[in-house]
């Protein structure tokens, strides 16, 4: 291994990199000139609402998997071992909950932007607050996403920094602007394949250079890089099972449950079932992505051990490790460095394009359309101009990120928690708490953002000041204390003394808890303010905007415990439903008759109903699902209460 100086790209590397950009552009152009030629907003922003589950799931994964994860995760595993891998546990609930709670609610409301939900459930002001918060979140995130690969590339290969930033930003802006969501999704698919291929190639060559898989295993095991599950309940420890596996669920919910970029994909699928399936399929894709990046960290450790290029001062930051490793290991494999750089840029392009498209959507749908009426052609043109202007704003943001300096993975995940967390809380307040009102929602969101920035910035400053005066840690103590017995005692004392208390304790909260903390703040403050200002009454909540948690749980429990109570009698009388929801059962209680059937009021509003029923008041324990209004065909009389549907 020759560790000296920066390595340079060969012509093949440049060609491979250029091919990636050309291919992505071509996909954009293809969708600009086929189908409806992107002439309607429905096509430009929702891919004609006709997407299938496989491309959607790859695209869903690609959106929040950027160069940040590709170079940040291996650097984390190299430095601190495989504890981070436990974030994979959070994917289970982090995808099941969106699939079965958020998708059904949003899909059935036929939304165009997820913030429209906030207006339906609360009011216009809440919608605008939500939209602005989202724009803020994505613009910062994209800044990190564009800048990260360019910086790493620049530091290690001498590739021009702002040239790379501009190339990514421009290519991405062009194909997003021309090809709409179809181009975004299909470039995501292509770019995901390039990303996986690049990572796999580096891992394979790396393992070979390190002397084979068993050698890698021995080295990482002896180097203490295989972490067992850490069940320490202390919330200030950066990575434990609890911070990653439980705190991570909230992070995942803010990304996969309520983020416009993802919800837009769910909404663009052909059917609700397909949307749910695509959410399920994200699980294996994310696990593969996580595995590849963790393995890369281990292989890197096997090659360098504790002799990291960072310590040898070949590079300046942890985030340059992966590219240094790639250039170092692959210099005798012309084309492979180019493939990996393509992998890195693929990861970022797929993120940036999704962000541009979703930003254009919300600006159009939430901020412009409700206030100015315009023709479809003008609206589409404006959407395209918006995608373009966000491209330029994000390029400017990349420059701001350039001025800050922290580990990119932690920075990105902190942004998700600090801005995405309060947004998650806002949606949870609406979906799970029928009593929450608009004032509660706005003040709750403000409180959540306030706490987020207080803890986030407080923590950042605290870390900055503590890194000036390096704190004692156990390794320092071992080095200076000759006697083993005193080591433990001294370490324990220092640990106890340095455990942060009071406000410092608050500031040292693990960044993996940010999403959970901030979303809970919004819910708690939102509920308190709602109760103080007069909670919303059940009947005043727009139908379909609340997820009936208690009723769903009760009906599940009921079905489990008393399945025989569901009896069906021959249908004879018609019942008409005037409610926009799917009805599976109509339970007419009193004499306990249940009619089974699947009804959608738009397509088939009539359901057969047994005549033996009398319309006596419902016993509360038998309410299943939302209440519906039904119409008796025979008597032409509206019955609003005795019938419920699930
Ligand atoms: C979104 C998660 C946390 C899911 O593992 C992951 O993709 C990740 O760590 N992303 C970091 C941000 C980024 O890659 O842009
Ligand atoms: Na991506």
Automatic annotation (TrEMBL):
Any single Gene Ontology cellular-component annotation: apical plasma membrane
Keywords: Biotin, Cell membrane, Glycoprotein, Ion transport, Membrane, Sodium, Sodium transport, Symport, Transmembrane, Transmembrane helix, Transport
Location within or outside the cell: Apical cell membrane
Gene3D superfamilies: Sodium/glucose cotransporter
One GO BP: inorganic ion transmembrane transport
Keyword Thylakoid applies: no
Domain of life where this protein originates: Eukaryota
Pfam family, one: SSF
UniProt keyword annotation of Flavoprotein present: no
Annotated signal peptide: none
An annotated Gene Ontology molecular function: monoatomic ion transmembrane transporter activity
InterPro entries assigned to the protein according to its UniProt record, in alphabetical order: Na/Glc_symporter_sf, Na/solute_symporter, Na/solute_symporter_CS, Sodium:Solute_Symporter_SSF
Similarity annotation: Belongs to the sodium:solute symporter (SSF) (TC 2.A.21) family.
Stated role: Sodium-dependent multivitamin transporter that mediates the electrogenic transport of pantothenate, biotin, lipoate and iodide. Functions as a Na(+)-coupled substrate symporter where the stoichiometry of Na(+):substrate is 2:1, creating an electrochemical Na(+) gradient used as driving force for substrate uptake. Required for biotin and pantothenate uptake in the intestine across the brush border membrane. Plays a role in the maintenance of intestinal mucosa integrity, by providing the gut mucosa with biotin.
Classification via PANTHER family: SODIUM-COUPLED MONOCARBOXYLATE TRANSPORTER (PTHR42985), SODIUM-DEPENDENT MULTIVITAMIN TRANSPORTER (PTHR42985:SF2)
Subunit-level organization: Interacts with PDZD11.
Annotated protein name in UniProt: Sodium-dependent multivitamin transporter
């Amino acid at each position: 291994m020759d560790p000296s100086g920066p390595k340079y790209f060969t012509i093949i590397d440049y060609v491979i990199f250029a091919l990636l950009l050309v291919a992505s552009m071509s996909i954009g152009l293809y969708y600009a000139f086929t189908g409806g030629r992107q002439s309607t907003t429905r096509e430009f922003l929702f891919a004609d609402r006709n997407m299938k589950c496989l491309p959607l799931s790859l695209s869903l994964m690609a959106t929040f998997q950027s160069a940040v994860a590709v170079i940040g995760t291996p650097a984390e595993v190299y430095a601190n071992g495989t504890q981070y891998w436990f974030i994979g546990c959070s994917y289970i609930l982090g995808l099941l909950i969106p699939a079965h709670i958020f998708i059904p609610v949003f899909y059935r409301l036929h939304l165009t932007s997820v913030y429209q939900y906030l207006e339906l459930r609360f009011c216009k002001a809440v919608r605008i607050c939500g939209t602005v918060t989202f724009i803020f979140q994505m613009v910062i995130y994209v800044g990190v996403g564009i800048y990260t690969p360019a910086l790493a590339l620049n530091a290690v290969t001498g590739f021009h920094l702002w040239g790379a930033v501009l190339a990514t930003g421009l290519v991405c802006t062009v194909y997003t602007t021309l090809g709409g969501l179809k181009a975004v999704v299909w470039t995501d698919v292509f770019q995901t394949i390039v990303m996986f291929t690049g990572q796999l190639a580096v891992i394979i060559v790396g393992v070979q250079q390190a002397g084979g898989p068993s050698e890698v295993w021995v080295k990482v095991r002896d180097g203490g890089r295989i972490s067992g599950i850490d069940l320490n309940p202390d919330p200030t420890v950066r990575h434990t099972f609890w911070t990653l596996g439980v705190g991570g669920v909230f992070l995942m919910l803010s990304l996969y449950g309520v983020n416009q970029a993802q919800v837009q994909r769910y909404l663009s699928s052909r059917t609700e079932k397909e949307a749910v399936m695509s959410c399920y399929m994200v699980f294996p894709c994310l696990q593969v992505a996580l595995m590849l990046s963790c393995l890369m960290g281990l292989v890197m450790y096997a090659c360098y051990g504790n002799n990291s290029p960072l310590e040898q001062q070949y590079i300046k930051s942890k985030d340059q490790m992966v590219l240094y490793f790639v250039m170092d290991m692959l210099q005798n494999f012309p084309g492979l460095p180019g493939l990996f750089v393509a992998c890195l840029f693929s990861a970022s392009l797929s993120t940036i394009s999704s962000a541009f498209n979703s930003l254009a959507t919300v600006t159009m749908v939430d901020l412009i359309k409700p206030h100015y009426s315009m023709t479809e052609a003008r609206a589409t043109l404006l959407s395209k101009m918006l995608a373009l202007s966000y491209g330029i704003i994000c390029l400017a943001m990349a420059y701001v990120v350039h001025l800050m300096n922290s580990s990119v993975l932690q920075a990105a995940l902190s942004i998700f928690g600090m801005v995405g967390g309060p947004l998650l809380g806002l949606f949870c307040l609406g979906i799970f708490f029928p009593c929450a009102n608009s004032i509660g929602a706005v003040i709750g969101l403000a409180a959540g953002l306030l706490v987020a920035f207080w803890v986030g910035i407080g923590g950042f400053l605290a870390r900055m000041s503590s890194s000036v005066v390096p704190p004692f840690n156990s390794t320092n103590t071992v080095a200076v204390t000759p006697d083993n017995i005193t080591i433990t005692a001294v370490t324990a004392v220092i640990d106890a003394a340095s455990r942060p208390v009071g406000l410092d304790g608050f500031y040292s909260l693990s960044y993996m808890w940010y999403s959970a903390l901030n979303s809970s703040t919004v819910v708690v403050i939102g509920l308190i303010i709602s109760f103080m200002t007069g909670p919303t009454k059940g009947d005043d909540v727009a139908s379909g905007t609340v997820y009936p948690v208690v009723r769903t749980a009760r009906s599940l429990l009921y079905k489990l415990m008393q399945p025989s109570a569901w009896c069906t009698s021959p249908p004879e009388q018609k019942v008409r439903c005037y409610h926009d929801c799917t009805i599976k059962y109509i339970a007419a209680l009193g004499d306990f008759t249940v009619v089974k059937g699947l009804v959608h009021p738009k397509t088939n509003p009539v359901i057969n109903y047994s005549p033996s029923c009398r319309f006596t008041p419902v016993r509360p324990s038998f309410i299943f699902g939302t209440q519906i209004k039904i119409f008796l065909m025979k008597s032409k009389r509206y019955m609003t209460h005795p019938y419920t549907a699930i």
